[in-house]
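Format notes (please read before filing issues)

Several people have asked whether sequences and structure tokens are stored in separate files. They are not. Every record keeps both together, in the order shown below: the sequence lines, then the token lines. Line labels are part of the format and must not be stripped during preprocessing.
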Amino acid sequence: MGEATKRIGIIAGSGSLPLEVARSIARQGGSVHVVMVEGAADPALAAFPHTTVNWAQPGRAMAAFRNASITDAVLIGGYGRPSFATARPDLTFMRLVPAVVKLLKAGGDDAVLRGVLAQFEALGLHILSVADVAPELIVAEGGLTKARPSDGDTADIARGFDLVAALGRYDIGQAVVVTRGEIEAIEGAEGTDRMLKRVAERRAAHGMRERAGVLVKRPKPGQDMRVDLPTIGPDTVANAAAAGLAGIAVMADHVIAVNRNDMIAGADAQGLFVTGVKDGERPPLAANPPSSRMTTLSRVAAYEAADKDVARAAGILSVLQHFGGGSAIIIDRGRVLAVGTTEGPSDVIARVRDLRGNNAKRRGLAAVGARQALTQGLIKVANAAHLLGVVATEAVISPPVIAAANELGMFVATTAAPATARGTARTMTSQSTSRPLKIFVVAGEHSGDALGGKLVHALKKRYAGDITFAGVGGEDMAREGFSSLFPIEDVAVMGPLSILPKLPRIVRRVYQTVDAAIAFAPDLVVIIDSPEFTHPIAKRIRKRAPQIPIVDYVSPSVWAWRPGRAKKMRPYVDHILALLPFEPEAHARLGGPACTYVGHPLIEKLAEIQNADAAALAARLHLDPMRPVLLVLPGSRTSEVERLIDVFGEAVAQLAGSIGPIEVIIPAVRHVRDRIVEKTANWTPRPHVVESDDKYAAMRLARAALAASGTVTLELALAQTPAVVAYKVDKVIANLRFLLKVPSVVLANLVIGKNVYPEFLQEACTAENLEAALKPLFGETPERAAQLEGLSLAPAKMQLAASSPSEAAADVVLSVVKA
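Then the structure lines:
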């Protein structure tokens, strides 16, 4: 081992290979530091200097290597595609989020692994191969066992090498089973061991007991040899023996053997051969893939990437024609999940269903090969596997098959000249205003449910005909007779870090909602706020049924950060109903969808806010009329309260010490009331904690307010209450502040058009700063006068001509239906 490679980092996934590499480096006189991927790495690696990291903590991994003076590392072991439900991201990960998302959207595993390498090297790490640090683990040319391949086995080995090489451009698995010239199995997403178990099950079902056939493993042409090098070991031998194979052949100098001695002993005990074979270069096959131009026959449209998936599947099927033919390819946005050779399409699709387990997320398609029938039964099998559709490369597709696909909300297509009349997509036509309508509404949390309830009521009031509603909502929508697909609490979470733990359930609900919308066949879809939940639904509805108009009620804050989202919404949103008066101009400037200001729901409460009975609240609380009132609003979410309540308490104490005795009122929503009471028990002065229903009366009573940033600042502005605004978020989100594109994070300031309320965020949110900003508001000062002047503009800025925001929203929705 050279001087430069005496200190090696190991990023360890699952399996025994990382431990073998670590021991090999130690035997050569080198040292290692192991970054153990949580939940994957072998606990025995803890015998070496190590750091355990979550898969979403590349910064922690790099820090460990820097502390160990390591610049060279190997990336080895098994790595499944990560689940965001288990992520505990560090700051480096958050900075890499766009690249990570792009990697996870990449088609084949090679593309993902190349991207992972690039990211680590961009962070300053030089990635080596196993051959660089533990060359004795690589299988050399020649036999490792007592048994040797026969002439027939040698021919099968050559055929297997030819097939893997020919399929390499399509980024398919590294292993095949060849028996007497027949391609018995090709590795898909299931991996080598499960492929061998599949061969064993098939042979047992057909009563095949003779030992025959070869497992062939080799890297794909052009594969980066530093990661995902093909590997064999004792388990490979055991599974090959159970499948009744004669032996295993690998490409010499390109495959790793783990636990070599145990592997050889196991092979000798079973009478199997294991051999390394040199493989020369060969010219590529002169394949003439069939036309991959897809014609959709169903009412449901194919997803956006389907054309590329069909082209790749057609290429694979064309290659397989040179090796006896293929029955079906299952592919999902470039990633080949399964390849069928000897089994029928239904069995290939069922294999993917088993791989996915309980994952109900609809993804990918099945491409059926030549001489394979496309039947109603096959459509049902594909539906059970949660595929989006089925494509026939040659088969005639009958009307009953198309009808079955339509009924299940799937697409069916052909790459051959269609032999049946194409199913026509529904289009919106100008009809009588009294025709029955079907509207699918999706709200993702309780504030959206409140908007949805008012919208449903207004639609029924302003439309002359019958309207049938379906979708997702809560109690407010239920009061209007709306029946939700599932409880809204299943998906009602806020912010990316809150979403991660519930991501698997949310994903299931997204696909359930999409399927329900397609089956409902609405005249229009309305999504309400909660973009993390509603926008994935809108995108998938648009891909599967592009003729259905989609309205987004509540614009994402594209004017504040990530302005590129506005333009990205155009393909799947037809119209936006804006709650804030400046949003239509923002979308026009940013290239977003058509946008209409329909008014904030608070404007419907203007009279209630401005006429709240302050005197009654003061009497009930027995307030001292000589003491000014400070209203404290620490937020309605537990996380907000926890971050702000202590610093608010210190500011209150300092203010009371500075200006004299004051009364403090804190309106609290039910789910945080007990925590607020507990945290304020020792405040000086002790506050009056009241119900949230008293909030507007408290605003009218208060001389000034100290508030968490949020919708409450609009309520304070409409109540004409001077205030100071503060906010804190977790450190990861705080480091993304550079993405903000607005002069203020306070909604009231943005609506009014100038920074009326002073704001103190993150590090600036200190008791001293808050007290200094509050103090002038308790006297007749220029600061107080300036705030009152600015606040006087708020009601006019938020008013609109229609009688209410919900009715204005209903009018836009109905105009889109009729368009």
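For reference, the curators noted about this record: The longest strand covers residues 31-37. The two ends are 73 Å apart (CA to CA).
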